[in-house]
Every structure is written in structure tokens, then in C-alpha cells.
Design goal:
Layout (H helix, E strand, L loop, with lengths): L4 H7 L5 H17 L4 E3 L2 E4 L4 H13 L9 E3 L16 H16 L22 E3 L2 H11 L8 H10 L1 E3 L13 E5 L2 H5 L5 H12 L4 E3 L6 H14 L6 E2 L18 E4 L1 H7 L7 E9 L1 H11 L8 E5 L1 H5 L2 H9 L3 E3 L15 E4 L2 H11 L2 E4 L2 H9 L3
Parallel strand pairs: 2-3, 2-4, 6-7, 6-9, 7-8, 10-11, 10-13, 11-12, 13-14
Antiparallel strand pairs: 1-5
Length: about 400
């Protein structure tokens, strides 16, 4: 793998021990995947932020680093909100360790937005090279925006952020972004006209696609439905990019190659089967984090009601700040709007035995990350269950 003069200096320790360690990570990664060189990135998004997931050794490693990030870098959700953590049952020991992790990232120059939806906060352009780590953010950046990023691990994303470069392999090459499997939907427009169905479609498609790159035909999801579709596929499969014929920015590039793809039909009955009935202890929305429009929709659904079951809404701090009217309306219902964290990386959700969610990603992760049963519902159904006395 070719390294330029500055890369060589960094690898040999001329910019300090931390930069040397970060360059060693990138060089090792590049050699494993056959990268020819390192390429500049415009931004990074770093996972490994919750004390629940990285633990004491992760904290010690972060505190040992002495450098600053070279590009705008946003932190993934942490294990609790930075304020008001006592109110949701976070222990002081956990909080102190989590705050230490946040401080370590602050020392590195990382933006403490603590969100899995950095594209709501940081402008990303078509064709830009990134080093993003969170699975739903990666699939959105590649598919909906047309930027280029592999699904980085926490250490490699941080290494790329500090060096300002990433190995040139995988989805950074246009030839590796071609669809390799096609999906059609039984019922077509009738199925996709239903509310919040794309998370269920993605949940099924991810399992069928595995590591293949899907192309969807005959659908026209809106931007937030694309978010839900991709996030679910990333959770149940290893999907980091997908295409929707006639819609996503790169679909037109591959339209001729797509004619000979293996095609799988997702049956309406498969989708219907995911929307089951089950009594739940709590309802959680915002996996991935809610957009401003989603907060407005939730506020509208909650208007004139009071919650009877715990209802948690997760969004980035900045989206909450700029959506004050909607957030105030949600809070008036008794629901909690929580920044910085989410239902799967915070230990406070582990107190619930069963949780209703509105996303395929959460449906996949809640059982393994929270140890709870998960029920999928539309957003309207989630609000109805949270506000119903039965």
C-alpha cells in the first residue's frame, strides 16, 4: 500500500505516539483489504461511545490517546442523556464512567452530538469519502446521499478521524457499489402505501440479502422511509448500501447491469407477520434518531392525550433544540424526549421486559441489546398503545 511522505512520518512516530497508533490501525486495515493507498475524508462518525458497549477497557484506551481529530467528527449515541440521567434510573457509577468517555472524546476534538443520524447535522455531499461507523448512518450516507464509506469499526473510524484519511477499498470504489440482488414486493403500491411499512420490508430484506447489495424495484419511499428501510437491512443483514430504481442517486448508473440479477419477491404475508399483538411495558421511538418532521408527526398524534405507559422518544440534541414546539407538545402528554442516547445502547431500557417499537432496526436489536421482547407497530399504533389504559 502506497503511503505519501506525511503518512510515512506519521507511521514512524514523528507526529506523536497516538497518531502513530492510528496510522498503524489504518495501514493494517488497508493491507487486509488490499487498499492501494489512503484517501482523504471529509468527515467521520465514531461509534464505541456507550459505556454499556465498550466498558472499562474501552474507556482506558480512549483516555490514553493524545491527539486531535483532523476532520469534522460526530459521536454516536452514548449510554445516557448528559443531563437528567438520574430521572431515568441510571446509576451514579455508570454515569461517572459514561461522562468520562464523553470527556475523552471531547479532549480529542470530537463533536458531542451523540447521534446515529449525523446527516441531519452535518452537510454531506454526493461522492464525498467518509469514515462513518454506525450501521444505519453508513447505509443512509451511501444509499440516499451517494457519499462513500465503508462500515467502520469504532477504532478504525476514530483512527481515520485523527489521520484525516481512510484506506481506499470496498465501497470507496464505484465498482464495488453495484447491486447484486433485486427485490420486488408482492402487492406493490398497496403494500407500500401502508404507514411505516418500510422498516418491516427492510427487516425481511436484510435477512435475505446478507452481505449482498440490494436493488428495489417498483417502490417510491420518501426520505425518512429510505432511512427506515436501510437501517433495518443493516441490522438484520450486512447491508451498507442499497439502490431504489429511479430514485436513489446511483441507481441510474447500474440500471443496465441490474437486468440479470437474482430477484426475490417479498410477500405481503411476510410483512404482515411482523406486526404482531403483545402486551408491552413501554414504547420507544427513534431508532434511528427522529428527524424534525418525525417529531412533528409524533406531536400531532399525541395532541390531546396523556400517556398511560412509558413512552420514550429519541433524537439528537440539535434536532430537539430546533423542534421546540413539537418537543413541548410531546412532553405535555407525559412522554419523555431524550437526547444523546437510544433504546439499545442505554441500560435504563433493560428494566422493561417487553418494548413496542416502530422500526425494523429496533425490532432486531432490542432482544439482544436490552434482553426484552420486541413488538413492531406503526407509529400510530405505538402512540395508541402508549396512551391506552388497557
Amino acid at each position: 500500500m502506497h503511503l505519501d511522505r506525511d503518512d510515512e512520518k506519521m507511521l514512524h512516530g514523528e507526529y506523536g505516539e497516538t497518531c502513530q497508533k492510528m496510522m498503524e490501525i489504518l495501514v493494517a486495515l488497508g493491507k487486509v483489504f488490499g487498499a492501494d493507498r489512503l484517501i482523504p475524508i471529509t468527515s467521520a462518525q465514531v461509534s464505541g461511545a456507550s459505556y454499556k458497549t465498550i466498558g472499562e477497557w474501552g474507556l482506558k484506551w480512549l483516555e490514553s490517546l493524545q491527539a486531535k481529530v483532523a476532520v469534522p467528527t460526530i459521536l454516536n449515541p452514548v449510554g445516557m442523556p448528559r443531563e437528567g440521567w438520574e430521572e431515568i434510573g441510571i446509576s451514579r457509577d455508570f454515569a461517572e464512567k459514561q461522562l468520562a468517555i464523553i470527556e475523552a472524546y471531547r479532549h480529542l476534538g470530537v463533536r458531542l452530538e451523540c447521534t446515529c443520524t449525523p446527516y441531519y447535522l452535518h452537510m454531506v455531499k454526493y461522492g464525498e469519502h467518509l469514515a462513518w461507523a454506525e450501521s444505519s448512518a453508513v447505509v443512509y450516507a451511501n444509499s440516499v446521499i451517494g457519499a462513500r464509506t465503508n462500515r467502520e469499526g469504532g477504532p478504525s473510524a476514530l483512527a481515520a478521524a485523527i489521520v484525516g484519511k481512510t484506506p481506499n477499498y470496498g465501497l470507496h470504489h464505484i465498482g464495488n457499489r453495484c447491486p447484486s440482488i433485486a427485490f420486488t414486493l408482492d402487492g406493490g403500491g398497496d403494500l407500500t402505501a401502508r404507514e411505516d411499512v418500510f422498516g418491516a420490508i427492510g427487516y425481511i430484506a436484510g435477512k435475505k440479502a446478507g452481505a449482498k447489495i440490494p436493488l428495489f424495484t417498483g417502490i417510491r419511499p420518501r426520505r425518512e422511509e429510505l432511512k427506515s428501510l436501510g437501517a433495518a437491512m443493516a441490522a438484520t443483514g450486512a447491508v451498507s448500501i442499497f439502490h431504489v430504481e429511479g430514485l436513489t442517486p446511483e441507481a441510474r448508473i447500474f440500471k443496465y447491469e441490474s437486468r440479470n440479477l437474482e430477484t426475490i419477491t417479498i410477500d405481503k404475508s411476510e410483512v404482515d407477520a411482523l406486526f404482531g399483538e403483545m402486551e408491552v411495558d413501554a414504547v420507544a421511538i427513534g431508532c434511528p434518531h427522529c428527524s424534525p418532521d418525525e417529531l412533528i408527526t409524533i406531536a400531532r398524534l399525541l395532541k390531546g392525550t396523556k400517556v398511560k405507559k412509558p413512552l420514550f422518544i429519541f433524537a439528537s440534541r440539535e434536532v430537539i433544540r430546533t423542534s421546540k414546539a413539537a418537543v413541548d407538545a410531546i412532553i405535555r402528554s407525559g412522554a419523555k424526549v431524550i437526547p444523546d442516547t437510544c433504546m439499545v445502547v442505554s441500560p435504563f431500557m433493560e428494566q422493561y421486559r417487553s418494548i413496542m417499537v416502530d422500526s425494523g432496526k429496533a425490532l432486531a436489536y432490542v432482544p439482544s441489546m436490552c434482553g426484552a421482547l420486541a413488538r413492531l407497530g406503526t407509529r400510530t399504533e405505538c402512540i395508541r398503545v402508549a396512551t391506552s389504559s388497557s
